Amino acid sequence: MKGRKQCESKAMYWFISPGLKKQHACKNHMRGLLSAARGKEVEIPFGELEAGVKRRCGKMVKVGGRNE
Ligand SMILES: [Zn+2]
């Protein structure tokens, strides 16, 4: 099935999106977000989640295609 679904990785970071909403991201997605932000010269406030906080990454991934 092609489409998009929520990333199944465990979130390790929180960040504030440009819409000023707090979101969660896994290690890979956080790295991607930060390098994209750097390219646009945008600053994204972020930090590590405390140990014991169980969250799923809120980013979407493509299904049926290449993994990012
Ligand atoms: Zn993710």
Task: Characterize the structure shown.
The structure is a single chain. This protein is α+β, with helices and mostly antiparallel strands. Helix content is about 20%, strand content about 30%. The chain contains 1 helix and 5 strands; from the N terminus they run βββαββ. The strands form 2 sheets. Strands 3-2-4 form a 3-stranded antiparallel beta sheet. Strands 1-5 form a two-stranded antiparallel sheet. A hairpin with a 5-residue loop joins β2 (about 15) and β3. It is globular and about 35 Å long. The chain starts with a strand and ends in a 5-residue tail after the last strand. The model has no long low-confidence stretch (mean pLDDT about 90). The site of zinc ion (ZN) has 8 residues, from α1.
Q: Based on DSSP secondary structure assignment, what is the total number of beta strands?
A: 5
- Biggest β-sheet strands, sense, barrel: 3 strands, antiparallel
Average pLDDT figure: 89
- Enumerate the strands of the largest sheet in spatial order, edge to edge or round the barrel: 3-2-4
Approximate strand percentage? 25-35%
3D shape: globular
Radius of gyration: 12 Å
Helical amount: 10-25%
**Which structural class best describes the helix and strand composition?**
alpha+beta
Please report the number of helical segments.
1
Unique ligands: zinc ion
Report how far the terminal alpha carbons are from each other: 17 Å
Low-confidence stretches: none
Please provide the ordered H/E string of secondary-structure elements. Answer: EEEHEE
